[in-house]
Write a structure and sequence with these properties.
By secondary structure, the protein is an alpha+beta fold. Helices cover about 60% and strands about 5% of the residues. The protein has 15 helices and five strands. A five-stranded mixed beta sheet has the order 2-1-3-4-5, with no helix packed on it. Strand 4 and strand 5 (about 385-390) form a beta hairpin. It is globular, with a radius of gyration of 23 Å.
Length: about 425
């Protein structure tokens, strides 16, 4: 029996770029719904909860767009390198170093007019991210060192370097935690919360800020660069066929370095969102896995800005739902701990930081809980009891997101958003 070979050049673009992703997404939802049904729950109700959590109220929608912003940057970063046949897995480290660039520029040039500080901080993020990507690009171009290996190694180097800086060089000396001082409030990027207040809409808190518009502008920038410029044509030519590109007079070495530097710069822009827009300081581990998840975003979006935008939005929905579910489940576990230790009568202090502080309901215990997007630490009588690391690929827990229905929570919401 002869094998059937499909000529991809004859497949319409809308089939491979629209129909195929939609079919894949539909199949994923059907499989997840099957697991929900096997668990004895209603898949339709689970989908309704997902839709409400992401779009049903303005603050939830703002959180979804905040996570979408980070995924746009890292998805574009991977896509640009991929068009030059480079598998850049270093987005995590490049975002980390990009955040350092944002902070150093903003803290040292805060005396300048605010719009100029913003522009210079954006440039600093891009420059630091590009510089961190330059070394693996050079090693790939000139020495033949595989970019996958070098970028993975540079993620660990960036993490170690930042921990050293946060502990011994730029740490806020008034605090024990490894983070810097906060930037002056006058140079913070305007938040969605501030804009909604001007429009008369009151919300408690939202990390969404002006960086979302920068992410949208980055989509147009990548589209124009890759498909409308000579550089973009050369990068794609090298990616499609290196030998043919050399025959045509195109330098693979130059284009590898250009593609990787632009890729690293785009990843570095994540620091603008996190440092200038949300936390206003450098915290250990602030990239929180966005660099790795951006690979999936780019691949799902077919490495095109038009596809990366909805893919980033989808992953933003999944990540936001995962965090809310995790907080709710964690509170149930805390309540069980309190029930198992009825002798503790002091007030529990529960602080949740997912980008910025939340407050949970309080109960009776001597336990203090500090939770971030990556870690949960339980402290009793100033001693560390335990630590739990939240997987950075939280967005892969689709069945968990679907299985969590109203039966898993009590009558009052665990997190008042």
């Amino acid at each position: 029996m002869s094998n059937i070979v499909v000529d991809k050049s004859k497949v319409p673009w809308w089939v491979s770029n629209v129909i195929v992703p939609l079919v894949n997404l539909t199949l994923a939802l059907l499989v997840s719904g099957l697991f929900v049904f096997i668990a004895g729950e209603n898949p339709i109700e689970a989908v309704k909860l997902i839709i409400y959590g992401s779009f049903g109220y303005i603050q939830g929608f703002a959180y979804t767009l905040y996570y979408t912003t980070n995924f746009i940057f890292t998805g574009l970063a991977f896509a640009v390198a991929f068009h030059c046949r480079l598998f850049n897995i270093g987005g995590e480290g490049q975002a980390y170093i990009g955040g350092l660039g944002v902070f150093l520029v903003a803290i040292n040039l805060s005396f300048l007019p605010v719009p100029i500080v913003w522009l210079l901080a954006i440039f600093g993020a891009f420059l630091f991210g590009a510089a961190w990507a330059y070394i693996p690009a050079y090693l790939q171009s000139k020495r033949g060192s595989h970019v996958v290996i070098t970028t993975i190694m540079f993620n660990f180097i960036a993490s170690s370097l930042m921990i050293f800086l946060l502990v011994d060089v730029i740490r806020d000396t008034n605090q024990m935690a490894p983070h810097t001082v906060k930037l002056p409030e006058e140079i913070w990027l305007p938040s969605f919360e501030a804009f909604s207040g001007i429009l008369g809409i009151k919300i408690r808190y939202s990390p969404l800020n002006l960086t979302f518009l920068l992410a949208i502008a980055s989509l147009f920038f990548v589209w124009f660069l890759v498909w409308k410029t000579k550089w973009g044509y050369e990068m794609r030519a090298v990616g499609h066929n290196t030998q043919a590109a050399i025959y045509a007079g195109i330098s693979p070495h130059k284009n590898i370095i250009i593609a990787m530097c632009i890729s690293g710069g785009l990843a570095g822009l994540l620091g603008v969102n996190e440092i200038l827009g949300v936390s206003h300081k450098i915290q250990a581990g602030f990239p929180a896995g966005y660099g790795f998840t951006g690979i999936a975003v780019a691949l799902m979006g077919r490495n095109h800005p038009i596809g990366i935008l909805p893919a980033a939005f989808l992953f933003g929905i999944l990540l936001f739902l995962f965090i809310i579910i995790f907080i709710s489940i964690f509170e149930i576990l805390i309540n069980e701990i309190i029930t198992a230790a009825p002798n503790n009568s002091n007030t529990i202090e529960t602080v949740v930081e997912v980008g910025s502080p939340y407050e949970l309901k309080t109960s009776s215990s001597k336990i203090s809980v500090i939770m971030t997007a990556r870690n949960i630490i339980m402290i009793s009588e100033n001693r560390n009891i335990s630590g739990l690391n939240i997987p950075f690929l939280a967005t892969s827990i689709i069945p968990l997101c679907l299985l969590y229905t109203s039966d898993a929570a009590d009558d009052t919401p665990c997190v008042d958003l």
